[in-house]
Records
---
Amino acid sequence: MSASREKKTRQEQVSSGWTDPKTAQEAKERKEARRTNLLYGTIGVVFLVVAVIAVIWRSNIIPKTATAATVNGEKYTAAEVNYYFQNYYQSFLNDNYSFLSMIGLDTNTSLKDQTISSTAVMFVTDAEEGQTWYDYFADRALEQLSGVHAMCDAAEADGFTWNDDMQAELDATLESLTTTASSYGYTEQQYLGLIYGSTMTKGIYEEQTRCSLLATAYLQNYRNSLTYTGDELEAAYEADLTAYDVVDCEYVRVNGAAPTSDEEGNEIEVTEEMEAEAMATAKTTADAIYAAYEAGTSLEDAAAEYESTATYTASDNFSYSSSALAEWMFDDARQAGDSAVLEDESTSNCYVVVFHDRGRHDYETVDVRHILIQAEESELAEDDEGYEDDVAAKKAEAEQKAQDILDEWKAGAATEDSFAELANEYSQDPGSNTTGGLYEQVYQGQMVTEFNDWCFDPARQSGDTGIIYSDLTGYHVMYFVGFDRPYWEVQVTARLMDEDVDAFYAEKTEGYTAEQSSFGMGFVG
């Protein structure tokens, strides 16, 4: 058959629907090959994706980069949110350590599995009953993050920029991180991981610390700019006398609570009749004490006859609270020498009260510098031989060091500035060893007893120096700067500042709300 004829025949076969078996088989094989290649290619891609995901997951890239919250259009990763979450959580634990069991917070159980009880709400006023502890801390963390974001935006708008003081504080924070991590045998990254979780890096920690320092400095700068005239302070005081006044008084509290256990220590159910009987007994005791007082016996001696149920208290600094006792003491009609028997069923107590005087804190606060020197801790156990001698020796070393510092000051310029330099060099008080050991507007009772008594000695004069010792704190090299404003003015000023700063903060943070991303928040906490 000629070539032209063969071609014509194939065309006719195709047009009639006929297929050459050889051609059909070849097409089928090509199709299966393509299908096989596609199948194995797809499987290969799947395995590759799984492998990449596994690597990414182990590297924490997803938790580090996943958006957990958005504030005013700016996205924050889970790691950044976790900075605020862990800071708030750890601060909460430190502040409420002795109450954790009472409020039902177990640090060994997932926060997501623990709900807030009605008892906890009594102690943690911004918590909601039934809310999980995780949600509580997450909400607080996002509030803080939003506030920092808002303050930084406001600072930029007001031209308040990063300065040397902030940089010094940041450097000190990072140095402390390095030192603390090293002291526990960790690298910085390992230590950050222990505190903030595996998503935290030094870069994230430093950046969020920088933002927090700027926000805090901006808010503090506003607070420092606030001033009030004498008339404004007096008007604020007159508007809320009970917030600042104190009462000089004596009182005896007689316990009127019904017993909750029997003589053998077994718990018993308390009935209303038992409660009424216990209060009636307390009232009888209070009446007897009051009768003795009116007959000329001192209130303290009269209470001593009933020491098992009666407690005597004398105070020249009794402040107002919402109670039957305080309401009686702060009654505007109260006169010196007034006395009475009070029943307070809300607290199951009876009181015998004597009023002496009421007024505000007119005494002057003081400014003082100090250098704290603490004795080294003994490496011996308390039951080891020589422990007490070792403690005494270390205490003597600390005392000598304090004396050497005072002698160094006396041998030098012997000025307030030179004392401040020594304080920055030697003091072990973290609250003042970067500010020359200075505490301003110190009020009575603020410091430990020995510190307080030295400052408020009636003979104290500017420039006085000395060394005092407290079992609680250690040796203090003292420098008396001078007297400051009356304490009542300090109190009123602080309250006005708090109110104005709160208003300023509310204004600057208005509209700044963190929008959560459930996926990213899953890596927080």
---
Amino acid sequence: MPSPRAARSGDRQPYPVLRSKVDRRSEQFQTNRETALKRLEHIEAALAKANAGGGEKYTQRHLDRGKLLPRQRVELLLDRDSHFLEIGALAGYDMKGENPGTSVVGGVGRVSGVECVITASEATVKGGAVTPMSLEKTGRLAEIAHQNGLVSLMCIESAGADLPNQDKIFVRGGAGFKALTNRSEQRMPSVCLVFGSSTAGGAYLPGMSDYVVMVKEQAQVYLAGPPLVKMATGEETGHEELGGAQMHSAISGVSDYLAEDELDAIRLGREIVAHLEWRKGASPLPRPVEEPVYDAEDLLGIASADVRTPFDQHEVIARIVDGSRFSEFKPLYGSTLICGWAHVHGFPVGILANNGTLFSESANKGAQFIQLCNQANVPLLFLQNTTGFMVGKKYEQEGIIKNGAKLINAVSNSTVPAITIMTGSSFGAGNYAMVGRSYEPRFLFTWPNHKIAVMGGKQLAGVLDIIQRQAAAKKGVEVDEQKLGVMKAMTEQAIDKQSEALYATARLWDDGIIDPRDTRTVVALSLSTAYNAPVEGTTSWGIFRH
């Protein structure tokens, strides 16, 4: 075990170095590690299926047409050796009518030195048609662009809405066009590269973008294709004269640049981003970046395989922050919520990490700490692993409701960027207090062991069992033990399945499942992205009940 380095006199960041107590040889550590590796194998298999798009047949057909695959387009757009923070990689996984990943690839990457939200239609899946979950995913990507003040780059080749699901897409789908024009008004440009068909509602994507590039003899943009035009007006016309790249570049003006081929379109896209002269909305004070003292590999053995088994989040913090340095706030008060300051790749963060159930003291401490971070314009990092707020007569009388409400008030009104990593359980109102999806963190990622629900399956099934027995007693009837037992078992099984990380990520309750060893990198990329917009805290809060 490496010995922590003492803070040197004169350092700009004289935070103490955390001391680790991890025993890599313990049975618990080895069990956690083996379980984590098995879960990661399962996730890798799901990702491989998502990355395969529509499968070998449709992929080969696409390649035979001389076209690049969506991930190839993204890779060529990105700066050499830069990261791509993928969002919703497993959206739609194991959902009826959806392919894993849906029909779009999306995330944040650096193009010509500028962090951009990049989306690419997956034309090998239903011709890139928009499904209910791909609509959700593109909506989430648009939200990321708006929250963080980012340039958008869209690689379009889509058949438009998946018509059998039009009732789930049509009304909500219009919001995407509105968001596109809103971002333009707010000086967040959109660059649209059209590689193939962009039909019906999809034609408004280039129509509402700030910059449009179309690939010669490939791009086709029209509100209605030749067959529909024939049916509606009786006019006979061809694809190129109706909506081809040449026509839109020379006659209609929908296209700003005519690309010779796909590589030329990508070159033009990078050129457009380069001339934006983009500047970030904020930047942290420059400081040297220190690697953590402790090995990130340990995180596989630290996180509990069973979320009912607690683990010390100090050990997680020690493996993701610069130099394993952490300045803890009120360490002796409300100890089930760790609060303190650190840096990740030079970015300042205020960390809130669960070390157990939330009590009144921990809620009060968290609310005060969030106010302090807002006062100093410091982003927040939430490490979730909680069963929620403590319940029982004693705690109700002590005011757990009003004190829990203070923490929820604080996270609701905080204006500094918040990033959430779910390292274990996320149950009940603890999900809200620690900035779950509904509280709009800038980014939210989970570890493979993550579970999310109102409460655990056993607890929920037990509550329903008690309710059923009370109802039978009121009616004066006998309880059918066999029937009740079957119902209880089925409920527990269903809730446990719905609590799994893969179930949650398929429904975009998070931005993706990450390897715990990548947490430091993911947090750093998220913070770097957040700094594209101004980082400004607030001193304005709702009423705190006392």
---
Amino acid sequence: MLIRELNVKEDIILGLEAMGFTEFTPIQERVIMPIIAGQDVIGQAHTGTGKTAAFAIPVLNNLDLSLDKPQCLILCPTRELAVQVRKEIKTISKFMNVTSTAVYGGAPIVDQIKKIKKGSQIIVGTPGRTIDLINRRVLKFDHIKTLILDEADEMLKMGFKEDIDEILQNANEKIQTLLFSATIPKNVLNIKDKYQKNPVFVKTVSNEMTSDTINQSYYVVKHQNKIEALARIIDIYAPKLALVFCNTKNKVDEVTEKMIEKGYNCDKIHGDIKQSTRMEVLNKFNNGIINLLIATDVAARGLDIKHVEAVINYDVPDKEDYYVHRIGRTGRAGSQGYSFTLSSSKEMNKIESIERFTKKEINKRNVPTAEKVLEVKKSKIAKEIMQTIETDDLSDMKQMANELYSSDYDAEDVIAALLKMNYNFKVASDVTDLNEHVGKRNKATPRTYGDKQKRSFGDSNLQDRYYIGVGKKDKVKPSDILGAVAGESGIPGDSVAKIDIYETFSFFNVAPEHRKAVLTNMKNIRIKGRTVSAELTKKRR
């Protein structure tokens, strides 16, 4: 449907046209009219399919512009998403006299209270700060006609169920409720059953977990070679914007530091970084000031980052659905996207689990050689130079060029010197082949550790014994612990032995020469979605 075919206020159409809209996405086309009609709606659509506009357009259309009171409340799982939703509403309503406010923790509540009291028709907020404002009697439901849960499944995963219940219980029975969610698990349906009235259910996600517009690949590399492999992939594909995911905050810090040392234009976000800094980093990324953003799953949850050309899994995610959410940030709106996963040989079981979960095979590829990277770099620089010659005005440089040309140096020497001064032709690692040359193990004969879930080598009394706080209740398997220890510590998998799994914790053995690697790298790592650290036990007598 073309936007001019929709019967909404002209000022909204003008705002959409100014944004470059020409026609609606499937989720927009199917939910706008039911929302305008006042019906409750459940919209199942992935992030990046235009769902913000899907609810913003009808909400803006139904506003009473003469009433300077909150008329719509939108709940989001993260501060970043709340800010982005409010920003898009402001853009769509460019030609309307509409006021909106984003409310979230980590920012002065006094400033947010002033904005609401001054007059704000749309409130976009996180559950915690919203409840605070309700309890202070700043945010009242007297005139709120519509309440929206954006990324409902994410909010419930993050433990906001009680907050959502408290907010919804403050609303009057006649309020219109809209749920938007990428997935519809049982707890989302429970909200529907408890608070919605005969909702219209609109599903625009396909049965396939991952989009056909995403070219998925993985590389098998040793843990210690992952940084160089990441650098070579970025050099070869040269994405304008790329997201790099790590499983832990420590790993995000480490990867960011090493990539900056290599000269890459990157920054990071994770839970320990203060909110104002995270917003600055996201703005730099969205505006192309940095082109490489390194993040944890938690920090990136709920973010609507547009135009990401590539997603790179520096760490193979612990959960299969994390993989789906990660790579779903590229290949949007029909554009081609790329996902690259760096896996050690010990993490191949995770790759196979992801393939079973998504019902798609991930292509195995080889990390480009240093020579190939150098060849691509030179070709790219040559094209940039030729494009500059063809398109730019070089008159202000020609006098200096003539002076250099008429000196004791010939043109070839001058050009070579300029290239050396301005471009990096080095490949950091002397290792030409970074690939671990192993194939996928035969899926028909999976690796087993016996009925007692143990592996053994050597004399166990001469090995270090480690405790880790994850066990049977977390559905952890020996392969999960083996992969985590080998992958995080960068030690050979056959150095990990005697894995004993109990209800809430586990033990494993590692040879003493790897003690420093284990204790240094096995801090705040994620196994089966839990953040845990390995602790050296006391020596057994």
